[in-house]
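Reopening: C-alpha cells for the EPZ complex, inputs below.
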Amino acid sequence: MDKFVIRGGKKLKGTVSVSGAKNASLALMPATLLNSGLNRIDNTPEVNDIFTMIKLLKQLGVESEFHNHSLLLNTSKITSQVAPYEHVKKMRASVYVLGPLLSRFGYAKVSMPGGCAWGPRPINLHLEAMKRLGAEISLEEGYIIARANKLKGAKIHFDIPSVGATGNALMAATLAKGTTLITNSAIEPEINQLCDYLNSMGARISGIGTTTLEIEGVDELFPKQIKNIPDRIEAGTLLIAAAITHSKISLANIEVQHLDSVLIKLEESGVKLLQENDCLVLDAENSSAKSIDVSTSVYPGFPTDMQAQWTAYMTLADSISTVTDTIYLDRFNHVPELNRLGANIELINNSAVIKGVKKLKGAKVMSTDLRASASLVLAGLAAEGTTEVLRIYHLDRGYQRIEEKLRALGADIERVATTEF
Ligand code: EPZ
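Re-run output (same inputs, fresh job):
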C-alpha cells in the first residue's frame, strides 16, 4: 500500500505532458472485440484501470502487448464470452464488453458491476438498449446473461445521455442487421473518438458529435490502429495544481477544445491562459482565486470528473462558492477530508457550499475514489506543512505516476510505502 507525503506551499513551473485519455481507452479496447486480428491503440495511459481491462480481455482470449503506451490487442482467438465478477467488481467500465460480445457472438455473460464509492451507478440504460436491439436479457446469480441470434437495428432513446450506455449501444449496433438510430446520445470526446475508431474498422456511423447517431449495420469489422486522445481530466487536474499554488506551467499534448468549460471557469477565477506553440500556458502567479460557482453537466458542460478538483481549488478562494454535481448527486466523499485540512465546506444536498479560507494546514487524509484523491493531492500542494494522502491506489487507477509529473514541476511530493490503511 502506498501513500503520498506532500510538503505544501511550493511553486510549480515548467512544462508537463498530458497522458492518453483513460476513459477513451476503456471504450477503444473492448471495441476491438468486434473484429478478428491485431489492433493497436497508441497513446494508451499506463494506469491501473487499463491493466484491469487488459486482464479482462485476456480472460476472453485476447492476447496483448503493452510497451511505451502502445497497446497491441489480438482478437483473433476469442475463447470466452464471460466477464467474471473478480474483474467487473474492480472496474465498472468492464460492462463495455457486453455490446461487442453480444453483437459478434450472440452471447455475453457479464457480472453486474459492484458498488462504487458513490452512486448508485445503474446499468439499466445499457440493458434496455440491448433489448431494443433484440437481445434477451436475464439476471442469474449476479450475472447479466444476454442472448441474440442476430441483433436487429432499432430506435434507441436515452432518457439520460449516458456515456457508457451510448458506447455499448454503438458497439452493439455496428454488426446488427439493419439501421440503428440513437437519440439523446452522449457526445463526450471519448464517444466521438470511439465512433471514429469503429468507422475506421468498417462501421457505418453518421451524426458523430451530435446527439443523434445513425449506425448502418455491416457484416464484419476489421482490426485497426488508432492514436488515443489526450486525457482532458488529467489536463484539468494539472491546471488546477498550478492555479491552487499560484504558479505558471505549460501543458503539452492537450486538446484545448475538450476542456473549454473548465478553461472558462479558470479564467473567471482570475488565472491567465494562453497558447504558446502547441502548449497551453496557465499563469496564476499574480492572481488570487476568485470564488466561482460550478454546476456539472454532460459534455460540453463542466465535467463531473473535475468537480472534486474544483472544490479543492475553491477552498482557498476569496469568498463563497457553490459546487453542484447534477450527474452524481453524492460524489462528495472528498469534502470531509478537505475540511480536515482546514477547509470550510458545507454539504447541502448535491451542492458543496465553500467559504474560502486564508490557508489550509497539512494533515493525514484518506482517498476514497479516483477524483476525490486527486482533490486531496491538490489541496496538499497548497496547504502549509505536510499532508499525507492515504490509499492512493484509488489515484493510480486513472493517473499515471502523477507524483512524478508534479515533482518535475517543482512540487515536494513523494510516494511512500506504508502499512497504514
Ligand atoms: C463515464 O462513466 C466515465 N467513466 C466516468 O468517469 C464519468 O464520471 C461519467 O462517464 C460521466 O461523465 C468512463 O468513461 C469509464 P454515465 P459512465 O453512464 O459511463 C446514470 C472517472 O472518474 N446512468 O454517463 O458510467 C448514472 O447513474 C469516471 O474517470 C443510469 O441511470 O457514466 C449517472 O447519474 C468516474 N443508468 C449518469 O447516468 C445507466 O444505465 C451518467 O452516467 C447508466 C448511467
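The longest strand covers residues 2-7. Residues 23, 26, 92-93, 121-126, 160, 162-165, 190, 304-305, 327-328, 370-371, 398 surround EPZ (CB under 6 Å). Marking as resolved unless the reporter disagrees.
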